[in-house]
Each structure stands twice: as C-alpha cells, then as structure tokens.
Amino acid sequence: MTERVHKIITDHAHEGAVLRKTFFADNAAQVAEVARAMALSLTAGGKILFCGNGGSAADAQHFAAELVNRFMMERPPLPAIALTTDTSALTAIGNDYSFDRIFSKQVQALGRPGDVLIGISTSGRSANVNEALRVGLENGLVTVGLGGGGGGAMLAHCHHALIVPDTRTPLVQEIHGAIGHLLCGLVDYYLFEAVAELEPFLGSEQP
Ligand SMILES: O=C(CO)[C@@H](O)[C@H](O)[C@H](O)[C@H](O)COP(=O)(O)O
Ligand SMILES: [Zn+2]
C-alpha cells in the first residue's frame, strides 16, 4: 500500500468518525423522537414506509427488512415497506407519469393517515423523495426526512428531520446507516422493553 492510499483510508475513517460523533451529540433527542413516532404509529396499527434513490434506496430496503424480519431481539414482525422494490410499479409510474412521482403515487396507494414515511436523501434535493414527503404530509402521514447538508427542499415537507451536516454523499450515507439501525433498535425498545415510556403519548395527536 502506498502512503497515498493509506491516507485516503485513514482520512475517510477519521472524517466519518468525527461526523458521526458530531451528529449524534447534537441530535440524540431528535433520533429518540423519530423512534417514538414510529413506535406510536405501529402501536396504533400504522406502518413505516421508506423511500430514497441509489444508496438511499438500498438503505430504505435495509431498514424495512430489519423491521419486517427482526433486529437485535426476537419479536413479532413489524409492518414496513420500501417503496423502491416494486419494479413494475416504479417503471409504470416513471414511464407513464414521471420519475418524480415514482414514490408519491405509491404513498397515495399504500399510505394511510398515521403511517410514518421516511424519505432518505443526502442532498434533500431528490424531487421524487420530496414529492413523496409532500404527498405524505397532505395525506396525514407522519413525515420524516433523513437528510444531509443544510437539509434542502425536503425540510418543507417534514414533521421531523434528521440532517447530517455534511455535503459528501458517502459520508452522509454512512451516518444514515447508523441512524437507521438506531431507529430499529429504539422502536424495539419502546414497543417491547419500555412501553411505559410511550404511555404519556398514546392517543395524542401525532406528531
Ligand atoms: O450511493 C451513492 C453515492 O454514495 C449514489 O448511488 C447516490 O445514492 C445517488 O447518486 C443518489 O441519486 C443521490 O441522491 P440524494 O442522496 O441526493 O437524494
Ligand atoms: Zn453510496
């Protein structure tokens, strides 16, 4: 390995670690709030919808799968859907309408008031994610933006926003991975370990 390659590796590791530490130091309460909103929705019979492009599409599928299968503990499967997986719906909507509507039409079809929609975009500028959040908001879903940079246009359509303060897509995605895992772990905590912590919020208007 050359010195240059070593530096590329150690710089990436260091910058990612600093960003991760900064984000969680500044946003622990917001992460807990989003997890609580997800747990409250699930308790009330709701479900969790995820969408995003590229690496964020992979994140959407990853997080939905943790909920549907299991995370760190044995517990019943939880209802979650990634809106990135149905190639027939995605291609039909993209072909007949526009790429900007590939997620929002699925939100119209599958989303119900009280469900949680998590839109994932490192730039906050993906039109299809923002349109899904806008439609979700309009239809009574609890909308969450998992973003980056300064938050971008997604902020206009989100009840909750978890914004990683960096514009480098890969680094932001790595923190999104940690956020997604924490959300899954905290949902399990609220639903199966410490349901008393949800009680003060049960029946209250979300968000
Ligand atoms: O994974 C990566 C880059 O690390 C790419 O696939 C990346 O997700 C794509 O370029 C996305 O289209 C970026 O969209 P967004 O995060 O700005 O919403
Ligand atoms: Zn990536």
TrEMBL record:
Zn(2+) binds at residues 62, 66, 173, 181. It comes from the Bacteria. GO terms for cellular component: cytoplasm. GO terms for molecular function: carbohydrate derivative binding; D-sedoheptulose 7-phosphate isomerase activity; zinc ion binding. It comes from Desulfomicrobium norvegicum (strain DSM 1741 / NCIMB 8310). It is found in: Cytoplasm. Binds 1 zinc ion per subunit. GO terms for biological process: carbohydrate metabolic process; D-glycero-D-manno-heptose 7-phosphate biosynthetic process. Belongs to the SIS family. GmhA subfamily. Keywords: Carbohydrate metabolism, Cytoplasm, Isomerase, Metal-binding, Zinc. Its cofactor is Zn(2+). Pathway: Carbohydrate biosynthesis; D-glycero-D-manno-heptose 7-phosphate biosynthesis; D-glycero-alpha-D-manno-heptose 7-phosphate and D-glycero-beta-D-manno-heptose 7-phosphate from sedoheptulose 7-phosphate: step 1/1. The lineage of its organism: Bacteria, Pseudomonadati, Thermodesulfobacteriota, Desulfovibrionia, Desulfovibrionales. Catalyzes the isomerization of sedoheptulose 7-phosphate in D-glycero-D-manno-heptose 7-phosphate. Residues 38-200 form the SIS domain. It catalyses: 2 D-sedoheptulose 7-phosphate = D-glycero-alpha-D-manno-heptose 7-phosphate + D-glycero-beta-D-manno-heptose 7-phosphate. Its EC number is 5.3.1.28. Coiled coil: none annotated. Substrate binds at residues 53-55, 66, 95-96, 121-123, 126, 173. The reaction produces a racemic mixture of D-glycero-alpha-D-manno-heptose 7-phosphate and D-glycero-beta-D-manno-heptose 7-phosphate. This is Phosphoheptose isomerase.
